[in-house]
């Protein structure tokens, strides 16, 4: 993936581009390309606490899934956030009752004991930062929900039956 300014640095200035090649008689020039790439997603301004909430969610929900699976779960959180009132935080979304399985199983007081202690945690932190900065796009195509096939097997959970499947990444099925 190219950095945001890389493509612009490769482009010719407008005045040079108009003198770059003489027209060929009988062949129409192609239309100018003004904006070849969609704008990069905006980075999100979040608090340290919200960043930590996202990291811990990636750690517990998708820690063994690899970069794409971690990013997918991160985007589910952000997709949910985008559908909440403006003052809603990432932590608010994550700790909504019944939304993420790990919040029912892991006491908050035990979280400091795992922060930064493993490669799995470091991977979750790197991907969380990339998702928040807009460096990694949404591989779920706008999903706001997911479930684990390790938990449900080939059965679709009752709550997911009326949703549209958007992707399967690793052991998770993503829906909206």
UniProtKB/TrEMBL annotation:
Keyword vocabulary terms for this entry: Hydrolase, Signal
Signal peptide extent: 1-20
GO molecular function: hydrolase activity
InterPro entries documented for this protein: Cell_wall_hydrolase_SleB, SleB_dom1
Domain Cell wall hydrolase SleB: 64-174
Protein name, per record: Cell wall hydrolase
